[in-house]
Every structure is written in structure tokens, then in C-alpha cells.
Amino acid sequence: QVQLVESGGGLVQAGASLTLFCAASGRTFSSYATSWFRQAPGKEREFVAAISWSGANSDYADSVNGRFTISRDNAENTVYLQMNSLKPEDTAVYYCAAGSRHSRYQHHYVYWGQGTQVTVSS
Predict the structure, then answer these.
(1) Which of 68, 70, 69, 79 is nearest to 120 (CA)?
(2) What is the mean pLDDT of residues 5-11?
(3) Inter-residue contact 9 to 118 (CB < 8 Å)
(4) Residue 80 CA from chain centroid, whole number
(5) What is the Cα 33 distance to its own chain's centre?
(6) From start to end of 18-91, where are the E strands?
(7) What pLDDT sits at residue 118?
(8) Of 18, 12, 23, 17, which is closest to residue 75 (Cα–Cα)?
(9) Chain-wide mean pLDDT for the chain?
(10) Could you count the other beta carbons within 10 Å of the beta carbon of residue 5?
């Protein structure tokens, strides 16, 4: 069993940076691929970034590629999402998810956090 808790969200201006944290409990977290998804008001939840269990491989949505960086520290059971050059369209609730497969697809993830709100003003 893995429990995920996101933090680090907030209200920032366009162009600013923000780091999200996903703290995990459970001894097996280091064996799971982890991803960030987001859901904007009135829209479906979408893939943002994924990282393999070892941290050796990562994947990004086209909309954030080059601006966001996903990383992890398995010793600390934490996954990070560094977000730079934020845009108003990045406004959403950001969710952390863990699963056995490094994937862009939500159904591949078993464990989900409750989400953290990111709001980017223009």
C-alpha cells in the first residue's frame, strides 16, 4: 500500500516558478513509476510528466516539455515537479500518481494523491 500527499501548490504570477512535492509512504514506493497529472476547471485530467522507478527515464507532455522537470529521491520517498515559466493555462489541480508501469495513461496508475492547487495569474 502506498499513500501519496502532494504539496507546494499556490498562487503565482505568469513567468514565475513553483516546485510541487509528492511525499509517499510505504516501503515499496521506490519500485513504482510515478507521474504528475493535472485537471483544469471544466476539463478532463491530463498527463503532465512521468518518471521511472529508478529515475533514469522521464517523459513530458508537449505543453510542459522544456519548462517542467520531474525528479525523485527514493531515499526520501519524494517526487518533485519543478515548474518554470508558468503560464495561466497551467492553472489546475495537480495530482501525483504511482503505478507499476511508466506510462502517460491514468489507468496504469494504482495510487493517487488528493491533489494540490496551482493558480497562475496573468
Answers:
(1) 68
(2) 98
(3) yes
(4) 7
(5) 12
(6) 18-25, 33-39, 46-51, 58-60, 68-73, 78-83
(7) 98
(8) 23
(9) 95
(10) 14
DSSP string, 77-115: TEEEEEE-S--GGG-EEEEEEEESS--S-GGG--EE---
Q: What is the pLDDT of residues 45-71, one digit of tens each?
A: 999 999 999 999 999 999 999 999 999
**What are 92-110's pLDDT values in tens digits?**
999 999 998 889 999 999 9
Q: Which triple of cell numbers denotes residue 85? A: 515559466
Q: How far is CA 75 from CA 9, 18, 55, 62, 99, in A?
A: 23, 23, 12, 30, 18
CA distances from 63 to 78, 86, 108, 110 (A): 24, 11, 21, 25
Beta bridge pairs of residue 82: 19, 69
Amino acid occupying residue 60 = Y
Choose among 100, 95, 87, 97: nearest CA to 115. Answer: 95
C-alpha cell at 8: 507546494
Q: Residue type at 11? A: L
Q: To which H or E segment does residue 5 belong?
A: strand 3-7
